[in-house]
Amino acid sequence: MTSSLNSGSPAPSIKVQHWLRGDPLSNFKLGKIYIPVFVSITCSGCGPALVRLAQLQEQYRYIGIEVIGIVANKRTATVDEALAEVDAWVTKWLPNANIRIAFDYSGEMDKLWMDASLSFQHPQAFVVDRDGSIAFIGHPDSLEDVLPKVTDGSWRASAEAKNAEKERIAEGEIDATENALRRRIRAATDIEDWKSALSVIEESINLFPDRISLRQSQVSMLIGEMRDMEAGWIALGQFARDAIERNSED
What we know:
Number of domains: 2
Number of helices: 8
Strand order of the largest sheet: 1-4-3-2-5-6
Structural class: alpha/beta
Distance between the termini: 30 Å
Helix content: 40-55%
Shape: globular
Largest sheet: 6 strands, mixed
CATH superfamily of the largest domain: Glutaredoxin
Order of helices and strands: EEHEHEHEEHHHHH
C-alpha cells in the first residue's frame, strides 16, 4: 500500500455533514493557510492538542491561518447519540471554541485524508498552503517548528521537509502492512480458525521480528486457544528470551 496524498498534493475536499462549532466550510480559499486536524474522542492526547492548536490559531490569526478540528468516525447506534458524545467532548476541551469543529460520521473525510496519506494515528494534522496544496502531514506537536517556515514559503522546498515526508511515508507503509496483518488475524480468530490465525501471526513475526507483542500473541494462540502445550512451551521460552534481551516490561 502506498501513500496517494503527500506533500505537494492538491488538498482533498471537505466533506462532512455535521459542523459542531463555527460556520460550515465547503472549500479552501486561496491565499489562506488551513490546518485540518483529525482527532478522536477516545484519544487521550487529542483534547490537549486541539487546545494548543486553538492557541496557535490566535497566534497566527494576523496572517490568515485557520484550524479545523475534524472528529474522526465515532460509530454509535444513531447519529444523534454520536453527535451528543462528540459535542460533550468538544465542550469539555474547548468550552469557548474559537475554531471550526466538524464531525465525520460517514467516514468519508477519513478515506480522503487519513487513509490516502497512510495516517493511522490521532491526532494527525495537515497543513494546506496558500495555493491549496498539502505542505505538511504529521503530528500537531511539530507545527510550532514547521508553521513559521510554511508561512514564509521556505518549508516545502527544504531538505528538512523532504526528509520528514520520506520518513512519514516509510512509517505509514509499515503501519499499513501491520494493520493488514491484524485484520487477517482478526478475521481468522472471529471464525475460530486458530491454525490460520497462527500462520498469520508467524508471518507477522518474520516481517517484524522486533515486535515483542507478536511473540506474546503467538504464545497466547498456541497455549490458550490451540492447547498445543509442546509448541506453546517452545514459543514461551523464545518470548521470554526476547523480552529479557530487550529489557521489555512484557
